[in-house]
Amino acid sequence: MRRSVESAQARVIRFDAAAAVADWSAVDDRVMGGVSASRLRHDAEGHAVFEGTVSLANNGGFASVRSRPGDLGVPGALAWLIEVRGDGKRYKLNLRTDDAFDGITYQAAFAPPAGAWTVVRLPLGDFGPTFRGQRVAAPPLDPARVRQAGLMIADRQAGPFALAVRAICVE
Fold it and tell me: Would you kindly state where each structural domain of the chain is located, as residue ranges?
C-alpha cells in the first residue's frame, strides 16, 4: 500500500498553493563567501521545487531554504514525513527550535529515489544537533518546540539540483 503524507496525524506544511513558498528564503553558502544559489519555487503541478546549483568555489558547498519562524511544534511526535521526488542526490531536513537566524539546527539526511514520488520517514532520533554544519553536544530535538523547517543540500555535491516537495508533516 502506498504511504501518503495525507495519512499523517498532523499536517505541518503543504505546497499545493503558490502562496506556500512565499514564507521561505534561501540561506546559501554566500553567507560565508561561497557562490552556490538556491530557491524554493511553486510548480504549476501543485508542489514546490527546491532547486539551484551547488558550487565548491570559495570554500562553499551548500545551499538551503528555510521557512519563516512559526509554530510547527507537535508534542509527542515520533517522526517527520516528507513527500518528495528526488533527483538522485542526498538532502537534509533541517529543524530549528528558535526564531534566530543562526544557532543550533537539528538535521536528518535522506536520499529519495530519482524521478518517483515517495514519502520519506525521518524518526525523531535521526535528527542530530549541528552548528554551522558541525555536530555539537545539545539536548535531543523536542518536537513540541519546532519553530522553523528547512531543506539543504551539502556534502560536496556540486552541480545543479532539483528536489520536488509536496508536503512536510509530523507523525
Answer: 5-170
Q: How far apart are CA 165 and CA 117, in angstroms?
A: 9
pTM of the model: 0.92
- Biggest alpha carbon–alpha carbon distance for the chain: 46
CA distance 77 to 139: 16
Q: Domain 5-170 is in which class?
A: mainly beta
Torsion, Cα 9 146 162 108, to 10 degrees, reads: -90
pLDDT digits (tens, 9 = 90+) for 67-81: 999 999 999 999 999
Chain-centre distance of CA 47, in angstroms?
14
Here the cell at position 72 is 510547527
Residues 6+ apart with CB under 8 A from 97: 104, 106, 141, 142, 145, 146, 147
